[in-house]
Amino acid sequence: MKIVVYAICKNEAQFVSRWIKSMSEADQIVVLDTGSTDDTVQRLRTLGAQVTVETICPWRFDVARNRSLELVDPDADICVCTDLDEVFHPGWRKALESAWIPGTTQATYRYTWSFRPDGGEGVVFWYEKIHARHGYRWVHPVHEVLEWMGPGQPGLKISAEGVKFDNVSWYVDALLEAAILISFVVATMLESTEYARWATYIDPIVLIILAVQMIPSAFRIIVPSMKQILGWAPTSLHNEVQEIMDRFMEKYNFKDYVTSVQVYGNTRIIEIDILVPKSFPYQTIAEIDAIRNEIDQEIGGNPTEKWVTISFTGTRKWMAKDYLLDEEEDE
């Protein structure tokens, strides 16, 4: 079964890497770029997408969608239409193939359009942008939808239960849609009044207000990003590691320990220096490694997203340099 992802884009370089990774389960990825001035096209091509650059004038979303659909190989079995700010959950292809039974021409799937502040799902509905290669066309200049244009009646429309889709820029989308609606309504109202000359200024005024309103959101993105660049770890992670070490200190009678925790992106870097008494009963490498493994298992987490270093010493000076050293002799 040949599955092809197709999309339209313009100046969306910031989404390319994440989108390509999400869509990589497909056999082919085709993109219609409608005039990007950033490096969207270069990034897409570097990561293996087949990109065609064309200007759609006058602009209509259905025309752009249909042109991008024309770029899909005719022998494709299933077409998946997405935007670059949308991502599938891993395993979507297997779930789609399992649900796509003979006679199917369209599939619906779970689409998470927004998220709550705590990261939980907000608005969720079922999307219908997965379809057979032949028989469908996009209609309507905005808010375009698929319509069956083939002979007779369309085939089965199935629910692909295991296919999940997230919109990663839902908040910006919502603001832009609201801004467009407000500017259109206000401009229309002004056209029939003595203030008609001001109608041309509505769009820039609304955009300025929108930009100012989005400043707090930008800072909510920038601040955590800067913390990740600097390696700052949340206090909760520091406390969690220290609580784990307090339990092991009591279990194995360690004299002291020092921990250092940093976070870079999804990777946690944890360093632990343990001070043991000179009469520590576990002396062989195998015994020490067993304790290391026990601590590492207690810390938990994805092994590919953490770097744990655990060292043992009987002399305090070999512990982390930020430790407040005293001059007493370690027994």
Keywords:
331 residues; alpha/beta; eight-stranded mixed β-sheet; three-stranded mixed β-sheet; 9 helices; 13 strands; 35% helix
How would you describe this structure to a colleague?
The protein has 331 residues and is α/β, with parallel strands linked by helices. Helices cover 35% and strands 27% of the residues. The protein has nine helices and 13 strands. It has helices at 16-23, 40-46, 61-70, 92-99, 170-191, 202-213, 215-230, 235-252, 285-299; strands at 3-9, 28-33, 50-53, 78-82, 86-88, 104-112, 124-132, 136-139, 145-148, 156-167, 256-264, 267-275, 306-313. Strands 3-2-1-4-7-6-10-5 form an eight-stranded mixed sheet, with helices on both faces. The chain has a three-stranded mixed sheet with strand order 11-12-13. The model is unreliable at 322-329 (pLDDT under 50).
